[in-house]
Design brief:
Blueprint: H1 2-24, H2 40-43, E1 60-63, E2 67-71, H3 76-97, E3 105-110, H4 113-119, E4 132-135, E5 140-144, H5 153-169, H6 177-188, H7 192-205, H8 211-220, H9 222-239, H10 245-256, H11 261-269, H12 273-336, E6 364-367, E7 370-373
């Protein structure tokens, strides 16, 4: 009896000692060391991840497989345009980045900038003039139709989807603003003529920024920001030329593994970033010079040709009007002229004129070489 009580006390002490760590974690010491599963927020590490608010009941939905669109009925026609180009844009981004295609993307379209806050995660704030925003952790894009002037919904969609694809391709690493903005603007295709004009002026004045100066130019705003946007887009377009796509994808892979932009581009293109910038500026300068020459020579020649064509067209029109005015006068003269009728009778009805009998011949004689009439 004494022996059994001692054994029981020893076992109780062992259980108490081994169960102490679990008890501090809120687990019963009699649970054989298995803790209950943590809450979903802790298990997925989603305490810092914002949550999507519910979609309004009146919204329509379109499921494109890898992407889903949520939008109000009034935006049906405008959303149809971005739905039609979503698959093509996804293929372009996949080829440029050399990564797996996007999956599980959701796009929400707001009626105006005020409604964007109700469709975006709680706690997120956007600038009043901002008409599009992306949440990479949720793979969520929120677009606005605009309250005043209509917004180019297709360009905004392309811009934000490109930002999302680039962020996923580099594993969520923070990149310089000029790189992200230039990549997204290149695929958005918004304001291409304006950017080309800004680059043309900057090339003529030789006032382009280096990549190291672009982020500071973005922060200055106004004209400096627009120029920086144009230069970043132009440089990324240079890096994304079809013959250089594989090199750009190799640079993205280096960024994914932790390299900075300069090192990644140097490894992908086998050239220093300063050399790449110099080649791009050289091409930009040649294009500006060629444009100036064509504008100086081609525009006057085009003006002369246009003047000659307009003058010839006016002459043809005046001749046609004169011809058209003569036709009624001729018709009027023809109507006023008295008509002459010619009647042809039948042959059997004709009256033949009487035939005159020939005169009788007077007899003549010759006498001594002369002729004499007989009476």
């Amino acid at each position: 009896m004494l022996f059994s009580r001692c054994v029981a006390l020893a076992l109780a002490g062992v259980v108490t000692l081994t169960g102490a760590p679990h008890a501090t974690a809120g687990v019963s010491p009699f649970s054989l060391g298995t803790a209950p599963p943590p809450p979903p927020e802790v298990e997925t590490g989603s305490f810092d991840v914002p949550r999507k608010p519910p979609i309004p009941v009146s919204f329509l939905s379109h499921d494109g497989g890898w992407i889903e669109f949520q939008y109000p009925p009034s935006a049906r026609d405008r959303v149809a345009g971005i739905v039609a180009q979503a698959d093509e844009l996804r293929a372009e981004l996949t080829e440029a980045l050399g990564q797996t295609p996007l999956e599980g993307v959701e796009v929400r379209v707001a009626r105006g900038t005020e409604e964007m806050s109700t469709l975006s995660p709680s706690g997120s704030a956007s600038a009043p003039e901002q008409t599009s925003i992306v949440y990479p952790q949720l793979r969520l894009i929120v677009l606005s139709l605009g309250t005043g002037d209509p917004v180019d919904l297709a360009s905004a969609f392309r811009f934000e989807l490109a930002r999302l694809a680039l962020g996923e391709a580099v594993g969520g690493r923070t990149l310089p603003r000029w790189f992200t903005e230039g990549f997204a603007s290149r695929f958005s295709r918004e304001g291409e003529w304006t950017r080309e004009w800004q680059l043309y002026r900057a090339a003529l004045r030789r006032r382009t920024h280096s990549t190291a100066e672009l982020d500071r130019a973005f922060e200055k705003g106004e004209a400096q920001k627009e120029l920086a946007q144009a230069e970043a887009t132009g440089f990324l377009s240079f890096l994304l030329k079809p013959e250089k796509t594989a090199k750009f994808a190799a640079a993205i892979e280096r960024l994914r593994h932790g390299d900075d932009v300069a090192s990644a581009l140097g490894a992908g293109y086998a050239s220093d970033i300063s050399v790449l910038e110099r080649v791009w500026r050289s091409q930009l300068g040649r294009q500006a010079t060629l444009t100036t020459i064509l504008g100086g020579v081609g525009l006057p020649a085009f003006g002369v040709l246009a003047f000659a064509l307009i003058r010839a067209a006016r002459r043809r029109r005046a001749a046609a009007l004169r011809t058209k005015a003569r036709k009624p006068a001729r018709a009027k003269v023809a109507l006023e002229t008295q008509r002459v009728h010619i009647v042809l009778s039948r042959r059997e009805e004709r009256v033949e004129p009487p035939l005159l009998a020939p005169e009788a011949e007077v007899p003549k004689v010759e006498h001594e070489g002369q002729w004499h009439t007989l009476h």
